[in-house]
Amino acid sequence: MSTIDQEAVRWLVRNSGNAMGSAEREAFDAWFAADIRHKGAYARAAAIQNALSRATVQESLRPRREQLEIEWAGASWNQASSRRAFLRFGAMAAGVAVIATASVFSMLPDDAQVVTAKGEFRKVQLADHSVATVNSGSGIEVSLTRSARDITLRRGEAWFDVARDKSKPFTVAAGDVRARAVGTAFGVRRFANGAEVMVTEGSVEVWSSDGAARKYLLAAGDSAFVPSGGAKITVKRQPEEIERKLAWREGKVIFVNQTLDEAVADFNRYSLRKIVVMDPRLGSKTLVGQYPIDAPEVFAKDVSLFLEVPLVITADRIMIGEDRRAGARI
Protein backbone atom coordinates (compact mmCIF):
# COMPACT_ATOMS: atom_id res chain seq x y z
CA MET A 1 0.00 0.00 0.00
CA SER A 2 1.36 3.44 -0.93
CA THR A 3 2.02 6.18 1.62
CA ILE A 4 -0.90 8.21 0.24
CA ASP A 5 -3.25 5.24 0.55
CA GLN A 6 -2.10 4.67 4.14
CA GLU A 7 -2.76 8.33 4.95
CA ALA A 8 -6.21 8.08 3.38
CA VAL A 9 -7.11 5.05 5.50
CA ARG A 10 -5.97 6.84 8.67
CA TRP A 11 -8.08 9.89 7.82
CA LEU A 12 -11.07 7.69 7.00
CA VAL A 13 -10.86 5.92 10.37
CA ARG A 14 -10.74 9.25 12.20
CA ASN A 15 -13.66 10.60 10.19
CA SER A 16 -15.71 7.43 10.73
CA GLY A 17 -15.38 7.69 14.51
CA ASN A 18 -16.74 11.26 14.74
CA ALA A 19 -13.73 12.06 16.93
CA MET A 20 -12.14 14.87 14.89
CA GLY A 21 -11.89 18.25 16.56
CA SER A 22 -11.76 21.56 14.70
CA ALA A 23 -7.95 21.57 14.39
CA GLU A 24 -7.85 18.02 13.08
CA ARG A 25 -10.72 18.77 10.71
CA GLU A 26 -8.74 21.69 9.28
CA ALA A 27 -5.69 19.44 8.88
CA PHE A 28 -7.81 16.91 7.01
CA ASP A 29 -9.26 19.58 4.74
CA ALA A 30 -5.76 20.83 3.94
CA TRP A 31 -4.53 17.30 3.20
CA PHE A 32 -7.57 16.53 1.04
CA ALA A 33 -7.16 19.70 -1.05
CA ALA A 34 -3.37 19.50 -1.40
CA ASP A 35 -3.22 16.85 -4.11
CA ILE A 36 -5.75 15.29 -6.46
CA ARG A 37 -4.20 11.91 -5.62
CA HIS A 38 -5.35 12.40 -2.02
CA LYS A 39 -8.95 12.67 -3.17
CA GLY A 40 -8.66 9.49 -5.20
CA ALA A 41 -7.02 7.58 -2.35
CA TYR A 42 -9.71 8.71 0.07
CA ALA A 43 -12.47 7.65 -2.33
CA ARG A 44 -10.85 4.21 -2.71
CA ALA A 45 -10.58 3.78 1.05
CA ALA A 46 -14.25 4.79 1.51
CA ALA A 47 -15.33 2.35 -1.21
CA ILE A 48 -13.48 -0.53 0.46
CA GLN A 49 -14.99 0.25 3.85
CA ASN A 50 -18.40 0.56 2.24
CA ALA A 51 -18.10 -2.94 0.76
CA LEU A 52 -16.91 -4.46 4.03
CA SER A 53 -19.67 -2.78 6.01
CA ARG A 54 -22.38 -3.95 3.63
CA ALA A 55 -21.34 -7.54 4.34
CA THR A 56 -22.22 -7.20 8.04
CA VAL A 57 -24.75 -4.44 8.53
CA GLN A 58 -27.89 -6.51 8.22
CA GLU A 59 -26.57 -9.64 9.95
CA SER A 60 -26.27 -7.85 13.28
CA LEU A 61 -29.87 -6.66 13.03
CA ARG A 62 -31.42 -9.94 11.89
CA PRO A 63 -33.74 -11.51 14.52
CA ARG A 64 -32.37 -14.81 15.81
CA ARG A 65 -35.66 -16.70 15.69
CA GLU A 66 -34.33 -20.21 16.38
CA GLN A 67 -32.56 -19.00 19.51
CA LEU A 68 -35.69 -17.25 20.75
CA GLU A 69 -37.90 -20.27 20.14
CA ILE A 70 -35.57 -22.48 22.23
CA GLU A 71 -35.18 -19.88 24.98
CA TRP A 72 -38.88 -19.20 25.39
CA ALA A 73 -40.29 -22.71 24.96
CA GLY A 74 -42.18 -23.49 28.15
CA ALA A 75 -40.61 -20.57 30.05
CA SER A 76 -42.13 -19.57 33.38
CA TRP A 77 -41.07 -16.92 35.89
CA ASN A 78 -41.45 -16.85 39.66
CA GLN A 79 -41.53 -13.98 42.15
CA ALA A 80 -37.80 -14.21 42.92
CA SER A 81 -36.79 -14.01 39.28
CA SER A 82 -39.04 -10.97 38.88
CA ARG A 83 -37.26 -9.17 41.72
CA ARG A 84 -33.85 -9.99 40.24
CA ALA A 85 -35.05 -8.66 36.91
CA PHE A 86 -36.13 -5.40 38.58
CA LEU A 87 -32.62 -4.91 39.97
CA ARG A 88 -31.00 -5.65 36.62
CA PHE A 89 -33.46 -3.41 34.82
CA GLY A 90 -32.77 -0.46 37.13
CA ALA A 91 -29.01 -1.00 37.02
CA MET A 92 -28.97 -0.53 33.25
CA ALA A 93 -29.15 3.23 33.77
CA ALA A 94 -25.52 3.08 34.87
CA GLY A 95 -24.51 1.51 31.56
CA VAL A 96 -24.31 -1.97 30.08
CA ALA A 97 -22.33 -3.69 27.36
CA VAL A 98 -23.82 -2.71 24.03
CA ILE A 99 -23.50 -4.35 20.64
CA ALA A 100 -22.79 -1.42 18.31
CA THR A 101 -24.94 -1.36 15.22
CA ALA A 102 -22.86 -1.58 12.06
CA SER A 103 -23.03 1.36 9.68
CA VAL A 104 -22.19 1.80 6.04
CA PHE A 105 -19.62 4.49 5.22
CA SER A 106 -19.41 5.72 1.64
CA MET A 107 -18.75 8.89 -0.35
CA LEU A 108 -21.53 10.61 -2.28
CA PRO A 109 -21.43 12.79 -5.40
CA ASP A 110 -22.78 16.36 -5.39
CA ASP A 111 -26.33 15.14 -6.11
CA ALA A 112 -27.45 11.92 -4.51
CA GLN A 113 -30.11 10.14 -2.49
CA VAL A 114 -29.69 7.97 0.58
CA VAL A 115 -32.59 5.72 1.63
CA THR A 116 -32.49 3.24 4.52
CA ALA A 117 -34.82 0.34 5.17
CA LYS A 118 -36.20 -0.51 8.59
CA GLY A 119 -33.31 -1.68 10.76
CA GLU A 120 -30.68 -0.25 8.40
CA PHE A 121 -28.29 2.61 9.16
CA ARG A 122 -25.93 4.43 6.84
CA LYS A 123 -23.09 6.87 7.36
CA VAL A 124 -22.11 8.75 4.21
CA GLN A 125 -19.46 11.31 3.38
CA LEU A 126 -20.71 14.19 1.26
CA ALA A 127 -18.53 15.70 -1.46
CA ASP A 128 -17.85 18.76 0.76
CA HIS A 129 -16.45 16.42 3.51
CA SER A 130 -19.55 16.75 5.69
CA VAL A 131 -20.86 13.49 7.15
CA ALA A 132 -24.52 12.40 7.23
CA THR A 133 -25.59 9.54 9.49
CA VAL A 134 -29.01 8.30 8.36
CA ASN A 135 -31.29 6.51 10.80
CA SER A 136 -33.51 3.49 10.20
CA GLY A 137 -36.39 3.96 7.74
CA SER A 138 -35.18 7.36 6.58
CA GLY A 139 -34.37 9.16 3.35
CA ILE A 140 -32.34 12.22 2.36
CA GLU A 141 -31.61 14.00 -0.90
CA VAL A 142 -28.33 15.88 -1.32
CA SER A 143 -27.69 18.82 -3.67
CA LEU A 144 -24.31 20.57 -3.50
CA THR A 145 -23.59 23.56 -5.75
CA ARG A 146 -20.98 26.30 -5.90
CA SER A 147 -23.09 28.55 -3.67
CA ALA A 148 -25.14 26.25 -1.41
CA ARG A 149 -25.37 22.87 0.27
CA ASP A 150 -29.00 21.75 0.39
CA ILE A 151 -30.25 18.59 2.07
CA THR A 152 -33.87 17.44 1.95
CA LEU A 153 -35.01 15.07 4.69
CA ARG A 154 -37.81 13.19 2.97
CA ARG A 155 -38.64 11.01 5.96
CA GLY A 156 -37.19 9.77 9.22
CA GLU A 157 -34.09 11.16 10.87
CA ALA A 158 -30.48 12.05 10.15
CA TRP A 159 -27.52 13.59 11.97
CA PHE A 160 -25.10 15.90 10.17
CA ASP A 161 -21.49 16.73 10.99
CA VAL A 162 -21.04 19.79 8.78
CA ALA A 163 -17.71 20.73 7.21
CA ARG A 164 -16.88 24.42 7.64
CA ASP A 165 -17.45 26.55 4.57
CA LYS A 166 -18.89 30.02 5.25
CA SER A 167 -19.37 30.66 1.55
CA LYS A 168 -21.81 27.77 1.20
CA PRO A 169 -24.63 27.59 3.79
CA PHE A 170 -25.64 24.06 4.78
CA THR A 171 -29.44 23.87 4.93
CA VAL A 172 -31.67 20.93 5.80
CA ALA A 173 -35.31 21.05 4.69
CA ALA A 174 -37.94 18.81 6.31
CA GLY A 175 -41.28 19.82 4.85
CA ASP A 176 -41.80 23.48 5.83
CA VAL A 177 -39.02 23.30 8.42
CA ARG A 178 -35.56 24.72 7.73
CA ALA A 179 -32.32 24.31 9.69
CA ARG A 180 -29.17 26.12 8.56
CA ALA A 181 -25.57 25.82 9.79
CA VAL A 182 -22.08 26.73 8.62
CA GLY A 183 -19.81 24.40 10.60
CA THR A 184 -21.55 22.42 13.29
CA ALA A 185 -23.23 19.11 14.14
CA PHE A 186 -26.96 18.59 14.54
CA GLY A 187 -29.78 16.10 14.11
CA VAL A 188 -33.14 16.53 12.41
CA ARG A 189 -36.12 14.21 12.84
CA ARG A 190 -39.18 14.69 10.67
CA PHE A 191 -42.74 14.21 11.92
CA ALA A 192 -46.09 14.55 10.20
CA ASN A 193 -46.64 17.96 11.85
CA GLY A 194 -43.12 19.39 11.76
CA ALA A 195 -39.56 18.51 12.68
CA GLU A 196 -37.30 18.37 15.72
CA VAL A 197 -33.81 19.89 15.48
CA MET A 198 -31.15 18.89 18.04
CA VAL A 199 -27.78 20.67 18.15
CA THR A 200 -24.73 18.80 19.43
CA GLU A 201 -22.02 21.26 18.36
CA GLY A 202 -21.87 24.88 17.21
CA SER A 203 -25.09 26.72 16.37
CA VAL A 204 -28.02 26.22 14.00
CA GLU A 205 -30.68 28.64 12.78
CA VAL A 206 -34.21 27.21 12.51
CA TRP A 207 -37.41 28.58 11.00
CA SER A 208 -40.53 27.71 9.03
CA SER A 209 -40.36 28.37 5.30
CA ASP A 210 -43.76 30.07 5.16
CA GLY A 211 -42.31 33.01 7.12
CA ALA A 212 -45.05 33.13 9.73
CA ALA A 213 -42.72 32.33 12.66
CA ARG A 214 -39.49 34.16 13.47
CA LYS A 215 -36.10 32.50 13.23
CA TYR A 216 -34.36 31.03 16.28
CA LEU A 217 -30.63 30.49 16.79
CA LEU A 218 -29.93 27.27 18.66
CA ALA A 219 -26.68 26.56 20.51
CA ALA A 220 -25.12 23.20 21.36
CA GLY A 221 -27.42 21.43 23.81
CA ASP A 222 -30.56 23.16 22.49
CA SER A 223 -33.42 21.42 20.75
CA ALA A 224 -36.43 22.88 19.00
CA PHE A 225 -39.66 21.55 17.60
CA VAL A 226 -40.56 23.54 14.50
CA PRO A 227 -44.21 22.96 13.52
CA SER A 228 -45.33 22.94 9.93
CA GLY A 229 -47.44 25.90 8.89
CA GLY A 230 -45.59 28.58 10.85
CA ALA A 231 -46.90 27.91 14.35
CA LYS A 232 -44.79 28.93 17.36
CA ILE A 233 -41.39 27.23 17.65
CA THR A 234 -40.66 25.55 20.99
CA VAL A 235 -37.02 25.73 22.13
CA LYS A 236 -35.61 23.74 25.03
CA ARG A 237 -32.22 23.50 26.70
CA GLN A 238 -31.72 19.74 27.18
CA PRO A 239 -28.23 18.40 26.36
CA GLU A 240 -28.78 15.11 28.22
CA GLU A 241 -32.06 14.45 26.44
CA ILE A 242 -30.42 15.17 23.08
CA GLU A 243 -27.70 12.65 23.90
CA ARG A 244 -30.37 10.09 24.79
CA LYS A 245 -32.36 10.69 21.61
CA LEU A 246 -29.26 10.44 19.42
CA ALA A 247 -28.00 7.22 21.04
CA TRP A 248 -29.16 5.37 17.90
CA ARG A 249 -25.90 6.49 16.26
CA GLU A 250 -24.12 4.11 18.63
CA GLY A 251 -26.64 1.31 18.18
CA LYS A 252 -28.46 1.97 21.46
CA VAL A 253 -31.86 2.95 22.78
CA ILE A 254 -31.86 4.64 26.19
CA PHE A 255 -34.81 5.25 28.47
CA VAL A 256 -34.77 7.69 31.40
CA ASN A 257 -38.28 7.64 32.85
CA GLN A 258 -39.88 7.20 29.44
CA THR A 259 -43.23 5.43 29.43
CA LEU A 260 -43.56 1.89 28.15
CA ASP A 261 -45.53 3.21 25.17
CA GLU A 262 -42.69 5.60 24.31
CA ALA A 263 -40.06 2.88 24.74
CA VAL A 264 -41.99 0.47 22.53
CA ALA A 265 -42.40 3.16 19.86
CA ASP A 266 -38.61 3.67 19.89
CA PHE A 267 -37.88 -0.04 19.47
CA ASN A 268 -40.47 -0.38 16.73
CA ARG A 269 -38.59 2.19 14.65
CA TYR A 270 -35.84 -0.41 14.22
CA SER A 271 -37.15 -3.90 14.83
CA LEU A 272 -38.65 -6.10 12.13
CA ARG A 273 -40.39 -7.94 14.98
CA LYS A 274 -43.06 -5.54 16.23
CA ILE A 275 -43.61 -5.05 19.96
CA VAL A 276 -47.26 -4.78 20.99
CA VAL A 277 -48.52 -3.75 24.46
CA MET A 278 -51.65 -5.85 24.83
CA ASP A 279 -52.98 -4.13 27.96
CA PRO A 280 -53.34 -0.34 27.48
CA ARG A 281 -53.02 0.17 31.26
CA LEU A 282 -49.35 -0.81 31.05
CA GLY A 283 -48.46 1.93 28.60
CA SER A 284 -47.98 4.67 31.21
CA LYS A 285 -45.50 2.66 33.32
CA THR A 286 -42.12 4.46 33.37
CA LEU A 287 -38.84 2.71 32.64
CA VAL A 288 -35.11 3.23 33.05
CA GLY A 289 -32.78 1.22 30.85
CA GLN A 290 -30.28 0.94 28.03
CA TYR A 291 -30.37 -1.68 25.28
CA PRO A 292 -28.84 -2.54 21.93
CA ILE A 293 -31.18 -1.49 19.14
CA ASP A 294 -31.25 -5.06 17.81
CA ALA A 295 -32.42 -6.62 21.11
CA PRO A 296 -36.19 -5.99 21.35
CA GLU A 297 -36.78 -9.46 22.80
CA VAL A 298 -34.33 -8.78 25.67
CA PHE A 299 -36.11 -5.52 26.41
CA ALA A 300 -39.51 -7.23 26.34
CA LYS A 301 -38.32 -10.00 28.67
CA ASP A 302 -37.12 -7.43 31.21
CA VAL A 303 -40.40 -5.53 31.01
CA SER A 304 -42.33 -8.75 31.48
CA LEU A 305 -40.35 -9.62 34.59
CA PHE A 306 -40.36 -6.09 35.97
CA LEU A 307 -44.12 -5.62 35.59
CA GLU A 308 -44.91 -9.32 36.26
CA VAL A 309 -47.01 -9.68 33.11
CA PRO A 310 -47.11 -12.42 30.47
CA LEU A 311 -44.94 -12.30 27.37
CA VAL A 312 -45.57 -14.08 24.08
CA ILE A 313 -43.05 -14.07 21.23
CA THR A 314 -44.01 -15.21 17.74
CA ALA A 315 -42.23 -15.04 14.40
CA ASP A 316 -43.37 -11.46 13.75
CA ARG A 317 -44.61 -10.04 17.08
CA ILE A 318 -43.62 -9.58 20.71
CA MET A 319 -46.72 -9.24 22.89
CA ILE A 320 -46.41 -7.76 26.39
CA GLY A 321 -49.27 -8.27 28.87
CA GLU A 322 -52.75 -9.68 28.34
CA ASP A 323 -55.52 -8.35 26.15
CA ARG A 324 -58.01 -6.67 28.50
CA ARG A 325 -60.85 -8.49 26.82
CA ALA A 326 -59.24 -11.74 28.00
CA GLY A 327 -58.77 -10.42 31.52
CA ALA A 328 -56.07 -7.81 32.09
CA ARG A 329 -53.33 -8.47 34.63
CA ILE A 330 -50.78 -5.93 35.91
Description:
With 330 residues, the protein is α+β, with helices and mostly antiparallel strands. The chain folds into three domains: 52 residues; 113 residues, Phage tail protein beta-alpha-beta fold (3-Layer(bab) Sandwich), CATH 3.55.50.30; 141 residues, Jelly Rolls, CATH 2.60.120. Helices cover 29% and strands 32% of the residues. The chain has eight helices and 20 strands. Strands 1-3-4-7-10-11-14-15 form an eight-stranded mixed beta sheet. Strand 19 and strand 20 form a beta hairpin. The longest helix has 19 residues. The termini are far apart.
- Kindly identify the CATH topology of the largest domain: Jelly Rolls
How far apart the termini lie comes to 62 Å
Q: Looking across the biggest beta sheet, what order are the strands in?
A: 1-3-4-7-10-11-14-15
Largest sheet entry: 8 strands, mixed
CATH class of the largest domain: Mainly Beta
